[in-house]
Automatic annotation (TrEMBL):
The keyword Membrane does not apply. InterPro entries: AlkX_C, Homeodomain-like_sf, HTH-type_TetR-like_transc_reg, HTH_TetR. Residues 11-71 form the HTH tetR-type domain. It comes from Actinomycetospora lemnae. PROSITE patterns: HTH_TETR_2 (PS50977). Keywords: DNA-binding, Transcription, Transcription regulation. The keyword DNA-binding applies. Residues 34-53 bind DNA. This is TetR family transcriptional regulator. It comes from the Bacteria.
Length: 194
């Protein structure tokens, strides 16, 4: 059933608001992002944005989830591109780190660089991000190892997601080392007796 005109319009406003917010966030950081500027940039009232996102933090959370979904598609392709489980996880972690390094929006969103107020989205309020990454990776494991217990697959995927996000926020080692460490951790976790 086709969606209503109002729903399509709301979706368009939401998409345009997120695009404009991303531009402003990359250009001016968190402090340079104002709902009024986003509203002016797309030709709607500030109240319209408050109705859609509730706050500047709500807009940021929607932006994080949207960009995360796009980037999780890349992650899934990296996982599916390898037959060996270790190489699949290593490739997925490396893809994540490389994408974050070259994408200015992801760098701001995931590191808080110039936007320290966004760090809660990766720490105390990171559940939607971790859950999205965990669920995609757990689906990969379910496809790759059909006999694997769902709880074990979910736990391994969550461990990998949390470790990768931790490295993005506070990198201590080169990406190849981190990819190896996380892939090794996941493979060993899956091989351990339950």
């Amino acid at each position: 059933m086709p969606s209503s005109f109002a729903a399509r319009t709301r979706g368009l406003v939401r998409d345009e608001a997120l695009e404009r917010a991303a531009e402003l966030l990359v250009a001016g950081g968190w402090r340079g992002l104002r709902l009024q500027d986003v509203a002016d940039g797309i030709g709607v009232s500030r109240q319209t944005l408050y109705n859609e996102f509730a706050s500047k933090q709500g807009l940021a959370a929607a932006l994080v989830l949207r960009r995360t979904e796009e980037f999780l598609g890349e992650l899934e392709a990296a996982l599916d591109g390898e037959d060996d489980l270790y190489r699949a996880w290593s490739s997925a972690v490396r893809t994540t780190l490389d994408t974050t390094a070259r994408d200015p929006l992801l760098r701001v969103l995931l590191t808080g660089q110039g936007a320290e107020e966004l760090l809660p989205l990766l720490t105390s309020e990171a559940e939607p991000l971790v859950a999205a990454a965990r669920d995609r990776a757990a689906d990969f494991l379910a496809r790759r190892r059909p006999g694997l217990d769902a709880a074990t697959a979910t736990a391994a995927a969550e461990i990998a997601a949390r470790l990768t996000i931790s490295h993005i926020v506070l990198p201590l080692h080169p990406p190849d080392v981190v990819a190896d460490q996380i892939a090794t951790t996941v493979v060993r976790y899956l091989a351990a007796p339950t």
